[in-house]
Amino acid sequence: MSDSLFEFQDKILQWIKNESFVTWQQIKDNCNDFIYFLPKEEKTNKYGKNPEYRIFLPLLRNGCVEVARNTERLTHEKNGFCFVWNWRRDGIPTAAADFDSLGVLRSFPRIRDMIKFFPPADVSKDSLEESEDGLYTTGRYLKQYFIYDVQGRLHEIPDYDSPNYDALFVARTYVRIRDKKMSDIFFYDEQKQELRINDYKIYRNFADNFPILVMRALICFCPSQLKDKDFYDRVSENLVYKSISPDAYKELKRIFF
């Protein structure tokens, strides 16, 4: 993990803790502010055009922050995020040790079946642009994402600040499955009970766009992994998930195939 990333993540956790509730747009704005004075090369190579993906998403993936809903005013309900725990100061949260990882995997639907529950889209295909990850968007600004299922029906993909924050990652995974762009998603050593995720270079980094809830389950099979700084950066095939039982691996194959 780079020093600047470590610093930015600590700042954003403290900010969310102080604010109690923040929106996705506020997170984006803060992450852009964080990198504003960085040298151009570091800003481009490490954080790109969307620094919130590098800075914030690992914290959501690991459970340091959680999706929340502000209902203080019923006429102004908002979806956003709240603070859960500070990984640097608090070590491993009790919730991670109590997390039923295998139960989560057993209850997780197959990726192929999830898309049909996305809301149907009422837009013309002519008004959409195909993006590099196989999805469709409404254009360059104020992007909204859409996906075609195997029956050719168009669905709207919920945004990050919706209750279904995993939707975009599920959709990107579905494209790879639908288009048969993947074969071996996982490298699994049954004897050591260790697993790695194949870092496919198709569209976007596959491992870094892995469904968040499944990723949390993999991490929490061995909660002490949350002490490892590598789990707070981009996901790569070099990361090893420990204590993954054969039953857990069986569920992963059901989910993704």
The description of the largest β-sheet is: 4 strands, antiparallel
Helix-strand makeup class = alpha+beta
Radius of gyration: 18 Å
Order of the strands making up the biggest sheet: 3-4-5-6
Task: State the share of residues found in helices, binned by percent.
Answer: 25-40%
Question: Would you mind describing this structure in some detail?
Answer:
The protein is an alpha+beta fold and about 260 residues long. It is about 40% helix and about 15% strand. It has helices spanning about 5-20, 25-35, 40-45, 50-55, 55-60, 85-90, 95-100, 100-105, 110-115, 165-180, 210-220, 245-255, and strands spanning about 65-70, 80-85, 130, 135, 145-150, 155, 185-190, 195, 200, 205. The strands form 4 sheets. It has a 4-stranded antiparallel beta sheet with strand order 3-4-5-6, covered by helices on one side. Strands 1-2 form a two-stranded antiparallel sheet. It has a two-stranded antiparallel sheet with strand order 7-8. A hairpin with a 1-residue loop joins strand 9 (about 200) and strand 10. The longest helix is centred in the first third of the chain and has 17 residues, at about 5-20. The chain is globular and about 50 Å long. The two termini are about 30 Å apart. The model has no long low-confidence stretch (mean pLDDT about 80).
